[in-house]
Amino acid sequence: MEGLLPDLEVVRKDFPILSRVLADGRPLVYLDSANTSQKPQVVIDTMVDHLERHNANIARAMHQLGAESTAAYEAARDKVSAFLGAPDRDEVVFTKNITEGLNLLANTLVWPGQHQVGPGDEIVITEMEHHSNIVPWQLLCERTGATLRWFGITDDGHLDLSNIDELVTERTKVVSLVWVSNMLGTVNPIDAIARRAHEVGALVVVDAAQAAPQLPIDLAAMPVEERPDVLGFTGHKTVGPTGIGVLWARRDMLDQLPPFLGGGEMIETVTMERSTYAPVPHKFEAGTPPIVEAVGLGAAVDYLSGLGMDNVHRHEQAVTAYALAGLATVPGLRVFGPLDATQRGGAVSFEIPGIHPHDVATVLDSRGIAVRAGHSCTKPTHARFGVQSTTRMSSYLYTTPAEIDALIDGLEYTRSYFKLG
Amino acid sequence: MEGLLPDLEVVRKDFPILSRVLADGRPLVYLDSANTSQKPQVVIDTMVDHLERHNANIARAMHQLGAESTAAYEAARDKVSAFLGAPDRDEVVFTKNITEGLNLLANTLVWPGQHQVGPGDEIVITEMEHHSNIVPWQLLCERTGATLRWFGITDDGHLDLSNIDELVTERTKVVSLVWVSNMLGTVNPIDAIARRAHEVGALVVVDAAQAAPQLPIDLAAMPVEERPDVLGFTGHKTVGPTGIGVLWARRDMLDQLPPFLGGGEMIETVTMERSTYAPVPHKFEAGTPPIVEAVGLGAAVDYLSGLGMDNVHRHEQAVTAYALAGLATVPGLRVFGPLDATQRGGAVSFEIPGIHPHDVATVLDSRGIAVRAGHSCTKPTHARFGVQSTTRMSSYLYTTPAEIDALIDGLEYTRSYFKLG
Amino acid sequence: MTTDLDALYQEIILDHYKNPHHKGLREPFEAEVHHVNPTCGDEVTLRVHLAHGPQGTWVEDVSYDAMGCSISQAAASVMTDLVIGKPVGEAMAIHDEFLTLMQGKGQVEPDEDVLEDGVAFAGVAKFPARIKCALLSWMAWKDATTTAQLEEAQ
Amino acid sequence: MTTDLDALYQEIILDHYKNPHHKGLREPFEAEVHHVNPTCGDEVTLRVHLAHGPQGTWVEDVSYDAMGCSISQAAASVMTDLVIGKPVGEAMAIHDEFLTLMQGKGQVEPDEDVLEDGVAFAGVAKFPARIKCALLSWMAWKDATTTAQLEEAQ
Ligand SMILES: Cc1ncc(COP(=O)(O)O)c(C=O)c1O
Ligand SMILES: Cc1ncc(COP(=O)(O)O)c(C=O)c1O
Questions:
Q1: pLDDT band for position C2 (cuts 50, 70, 90)
Q2: pLDDT at residue number C41
Q3: What is the pLDDT, as a whole number, of residue D2?
Q4: The predicted structure's pLDDT at residue C153
């Protein structure tokens, strides 16, 4: 098959869990990577090596272990910075996940500063957002008196940009949107939207939780008008560990924002009466950061770069096209989102009328096939398409065509199990 | 020596890093455990096993791996709950560190609700706090118009409680204090302070970052008047990984607080217009939590319970007494905080007039001895004692008397290196 | 093959799923609750109507509207069969019995005299991800009944 | 033994530590800055006085008040020796040379003609935790000088 990663079987050997045998001796067919990705041995080994040989607190510790640990943590920042093509490595803030990153932003915009949001201001999101890019903005609006507005979705699963000029106006302070949808798979035109948002002076925030694992990203290479002001992703979906996320943001913006969490590491000086804060990125990294997790993420983005993000993307496209073709053969099955693989990422949500997604997932699971069933943290997108829940398969760089075949067979079996025509 | 952990040499074998050899072939003498503790093999192995065999997202994932991962994560909550003697396991919220936990609280108290803080209200802390228990309250006061007040410290390093009745009054909304000081070592009488605070209806918040590693804790056994309303600790100081912390709080209080971070997992239902929130603890665990970190922390508290927290505490007391005696033999050296080991924890900060703490630390480090030098994230406590920085040695359950001897020898050497009389 | 799967999807469950009993929202009622399973989005709106007599309070009617999978729908149907017409105390005891079965990891032997069609859910206990589905309407019923009793007590 | 240690604590450094040059805050000055090393708490308050002539702008005086370890104190002393009396451009070049030495992981050969007593800091580069100590006053000087020039340009 065209486009697959060269040496796919060798790549799969890098992921110990892929040889896991499940109940009834079934091999694991992991099609839930948009939920969380599996981890290559090198990420696990790097973390173990750090814990067994270099563990110490960072920055504050002046001894040899402290120097090693600090160097490893800051090297991870360099790696992530290179992975994103960040203009400045100090623009890379480590958070615990992208959810924290988005909240960091929405939370600091409440307080006095150049970017403070107030009554009459508007925040624009989309109907395609993950809950983590909805609830923080709802809280912000509730707390500041600003108004939340959003782009709708067309029937074929694209953002409806027809009213962009009415939606994004001089009142707009922030436009926050997902790059690649975790439900519909849609790849959104963040460049065109950023261009419009920047015309009216709004900040552009991009949720790259699903984009970072799949698309080559080069922030520095983007024309400034089209470059997001803020972009976040989460470690556990990019073959890294849980407990670590990344918030990249324009340096001058980070400089101007008030602090989010207060405590150790983020201070310049503290008296009982008042405190001053350290320069970014440390200003936003209060407390002992997720050190071993950052180190693991560094190994993860190195692993991805080693494979080549272009190759990873090509693989994803090939497998997704194959999956879409396979799903089209299942009678009655309806896929949500673009039906053309070139316009989308690897998460494919679908329904089989007459069988509830949980029941689909359970039957598949009994055959070792792991998919997600439910609202995939996108209730409003589901409501838009008139469904309460869906089944979602999501592939990644280690997914083989044979696994897609297993899924399609499993779906046929599910239909017969529930005695559908 | 009386009080040491039985089989100390065997216990040390559990910690791979303790056999690390540093520059010039020096064995590691790790006396920086109050900064971060080392990790036993069982914690590392538990994390590796999770990553290699059970990794999946939790709650949302319905397949076999998802069920295993969810069970492991929730079992970690049960273990932590047992470790603290929490009255209800759903009162245990996982955060990324204790700094986030304290900020979670200070941040949610800003917004409408039964515990909202406003102008005229007072927050009481102490001069002995870690920056992570100062800055969040400064930010809260700045944002609400409340006033920050604090207990002073006596010359021998105890809290000055002489003015408690003037300090803790009907205006007091929160009393937040450290149980065991990370600079002075002082063990504070949280029971008596909680009793007074509860009389005036204030919430009592206890920073147990240094207490949890050392003292047996049994919340359920405390008389309610003396029991904190909130208590937090951090994973990496209790032989667990970075990236995980614990915030325990009274259930009815957690129920009443507004959410902190918004996003996946913390919702009940989401529409574009508004959202409702899941019950605690999930309400406060937005996004994919630090799953493998929680699992690691579960193994860590099990390890500590296996040794017996009473034994760990006795060991700490014995080593600290031995260290205080040794330090007293170094000419000119001044120890800050209580000089009686029974009144303190294992962190001992000191100065040698004429040699800056950094220089002390560097000379010790050249001999493989890792200590901390600087302000230990307690600038106001340092200012209280008229010093800008100190050297701090901190022992833990794996520390041997021989390591204390090495420290004392190293200090003698440092004095001669800098040609002190 | 797939014995666990067949144990989960017993004929009784699929029958209740296809032809749910007591479905629909009815009057009168003393309490109405809306419960959601946040992880998957399953929802139930449920009403309880209690009645009183010399022998105490009993469950006169339970009506509901639910969206969800076969397990959650069938559980709601079986639950209404079990509690309607029972004294509240007895219905609560059945609830407890069902809860014990669900949390028993497949090790608990269900009592058919108490749980009737509910014994068909024994297989669910082996699917941790589905236990919440089976419990959703039971939790809603308990919540609504407690609320109704509290309201009346005031 | 401990050769690295001796390379760090060279006599020149200990001399400057015990008898720092140009210490104290003086008038006049165009800019004053306060820099802190957040990790360890070392602090410096530093003033720059620039002067102008036909050959351009030069550093007329640098005065400072500092709290910190031997390395940070000695670095401040050596820095004032190196920049006072130099044209601003040349002083900036010395700053760059010192920075390169510090960040060179012990691989950079220092140029004694440019750095004079500053070569004694070559050993610091091998102690990552101490590099910030050596740079604190240099950073403060650069900041103050840039500020002074910006003010004057307005
Ligand atoms: C007493 C005390 N409180 C709070 C903290 C902060 O812990 P963390 O950095 O893990 O959030 C520490 C340790 O640094 C501490 O010693
Ligand atoms: C598009 C998108 N945004 C945000 C998130 C939230 O990521 P996390 O739970 O790691 O914070 C996810 C994944 O759950 C996602 O798919």
A1: very low
A2: 80
A3: 46
A4: 80
CA distance D28 to C133: 78
Q: Do D70 and B359 touch (CB under 8 A)?
A: yes
Residue B177: which of B150, B154, B155 has the closest Cα? Answer: B150
Q: Is the CB of B97 under 6 A from ligand 1?
A: yes
With residue B193 as reference, give the H or E element that holds it: helix B190-199
What is the homologous superfamily of the domain B8-37+309-417 according to CATH? Aspartate Aminotransferase, domain 1 (3.90.1150.10)
**Yes or no: is domain B45-305 CATH 3.30.70.1450?**
no
Asked whether residue B421 carries a pLDDT value surpassing 70, the answer given is: no
- Ligand 1: residue whose CA is nearest its atom 16: B182
Give the residue on C whose Cα is nearest the Cα of A372: C40
Q: Report the alpha-carbon distance of residue B179 to residue B36 in Å, rounded.
A: 17
Among the bound ligands, the one closest to the CA of A372? 2
Which of B288, B291, B292, when mutated, tests ligand 2's pocket best, judged by the most ligand atoms within 8 Å of its CB? B288
Q: What is the pLDDT of residue D128?
A: 85
3-state secondary structure B228-271: CCEEEEEHHHCCCCCCCEEEEECHHHHHHCCCCCCCCCCEEEEC
Mean pLDDT over A60-68 rounds to 87
User: C8: which 2 tokens?
Assistant: 């989960």
Helix extents (H) in A220-290: 251-256
Q: In chain C, what are the domains?
A: 2-153 (3.90.1010.10)
**pLDDT > 50? residue D1:** no
Check residue B223 and give its pLDDT.
Answer: 98
The answer to whether the CB atoms of D41 and B358 lie below 8 A apart is no
Is B99 close to ligand 1, i.e. is its CB under 6 Å away?
A: yes
Domain ranges of chain A: 8-37+309-417, 45-305
C140 contact residues in B (CB cutoff 8 A): none
Measured between alpha carbons, how far is residue B347 from residues B31, B217, B321, B359, C116 in Å? 9, 19, 11, 19, 63
Q: Is D27 left (phi over 0), alpha (psi -120 to 50) or beta?
A: beta
> What integer pLDDT is reported at residue B112 of this predicted model?
96
Structure ipTM? 0.93
Cis, bond preceding C128 (omega within 30 deg of 0): no
Q: Which mutation among A234, A236, A242, A381 tests ligand 2's pocket best, with the greatest number of atoms within 8 A of CB?
A: A234
Taking the centre of ligand 2 as the mean of its atom positions, its distance from the CA of residue A206, in whole angstroms, is 12
pLDDT for A111-122, tens place per residue?
999 999 999 999
pTM for the structure as a whole: 0.95
Q: How many CB pairs under 8 A join A and C?
A: 49
